[in-house]
Amino acid sequence: MENNELANRVLELRNRKGFSQEFLAEESGVSLRTIQRVENGETQPRGDTLQRIAKGLGVTSEELIDWKLEKNNSYLTQLNSSAISFLFFPFLGILIPLVMWISKKNEIHNINKTSKEILNFEITWCLLLSFCFIIYIGSNFYRVKSASEISPSLLLNPAFLWLSVCFLYLLNLVLILFNSSRLKSGKEALYYIRIPFLK
Questions:
Q1: How far apart are CA 6 and CA 39, in angstroms?
Q2: Do the beta carbons of residue 74 and residue 180 sit within 8 Å?
Q3: What φ, ψ does residue 76 adopt, rounded to 5°?
Q4: Residue 187 CA: distances (Å) to CA of 44, 64, 183, 198
Q5: Which residues contact 56 (CB under 8 A, 6 or more apart)?
Q6: DSSP annotation string for 65-111
Q7: DSSP state of 152
């Protein structure tokens, strides 16, 4: 983003909220001179300074940066749909969306939020899939170790494992298709089952 675009955004938001430069500086915890330089397009705030100014304006730093970014629902839909690669290998559902996100980061409106939603879900899904195998193998190991005699009847029915795996695969596929439809129509992705690894 060019300095002038960010300068215009900060100035517009400050005026819309009725803040003086002095008040924004106080709310943000940055110097008055920094606010003046940002609004004049003399400097582009980064990192902590950007977050402080955004917080002072009551928006997130992403919203402040994304203001003039291209709206491209088609790319967001492709990004989300790329997670279907988990069908070939589970970790591809993380890797391919991650590459697509990095290649267009800070170029497309809402790409950061959408990518984090997708990746948080796919990472959580991979962990759940791994736990299914770990629990199954661990339970069998414990049963065999605790038994006085080794017998094939000690092993848990593998149908439980495969039913769990099939359920997880179906859940992943359904949520990807559901969210691809939402993104295509301009709505936000909603992945209900996820651990917020990326914030």
A1: 8
A2: no
A3: -60, -35
A4: 30, 20, 5, 21
A5: 19, 24, 25, 27, 28, 29, 30
A6: HHTTSBP-HHHHHHHHHGGGGGGT-TTHHHHHHHHHHHHHTTTBTTH
A7: G
Strand partners, 98: none
Structure tokens at 90: 């589970």
Distance CA 71, CA 40 (A): 26
Amino acid at 48: D
- 3-state DSSP call for residue 64? helix
Q: Considering the entire predicted model, what is its pTM?
A: 0.68
Provide the residue type at 172 as one letter.
N
Between the CA of residue 93 and those of 24, 77, 84, 123, what are the distances in Å?
42, 14, 6, 8
pLDDT in tens, 137-195: 998 888 888 877 766 767 778 898 999 999 999 999 999 999 999 999 999 999 988 99
